[in-house]
Amino acid sequence: MQTLYRIARAALFQLDPETAHDVAMKAMCAMGPAAALLGAGADRNESRTVMGIEFPNPVGLAAGFDKNGEYLDTLHALGFGHLEAGTVTPRPQPGNPKPRLFRLVEHDAIINRMGFNNVGVDRLVRNVEKASFRGVLGINIGKNFDTPMEHAADDYLLCLDAVYDRATYIAVNISSPNTKNLRDLQSKEKLDDLLAAIMQRRDALAAKAGRVKPLAVKIAPDLDDEQLEAIAELAVKHRLDGLIATNTTIGRKGVEGHRHAKEAGGLSGRPVFGTLDGRAGEAGVAPVGPRPAHRRRRHPHGGGREGEDRRRRESRAGLHGLHLPRPRRHRRRAPRAAPLGVPPEVPAMRIGIPRESKPGERRVALLPDAVACLVAAGHEVRVAAGAGSGAGEADAAYATAGARIVAADEAWQAELVVKVKEIQPGEWELVAPGSTLFCFQHLVGEPELTRALASRAITAIAFEMVRDGAGGFPILAPMSALAGRLAIVAGAHHLTVPGGGRGVLLAGGPGSEPARVLVLGGGHAGANAAQVAASLGASVTLLTRSEATRDDLWSRFDGLIALDLATPENLEAEVPAADLVVGAVFVPGAPTPRLLPRGLVARMRPGSVIVDVSIDAGGVAETSRPTTHDDPVFIAEGVLHYCVPNMPAAVPRAAAQALSSVAGPLALALAAGIADAARADPGLAAGVLLWQGRATHAGIASEAGLPCVPLAPGDFEA
Question: Among all residues, which ones are annotated catalytic?
Answer without folding.
Answer: 176
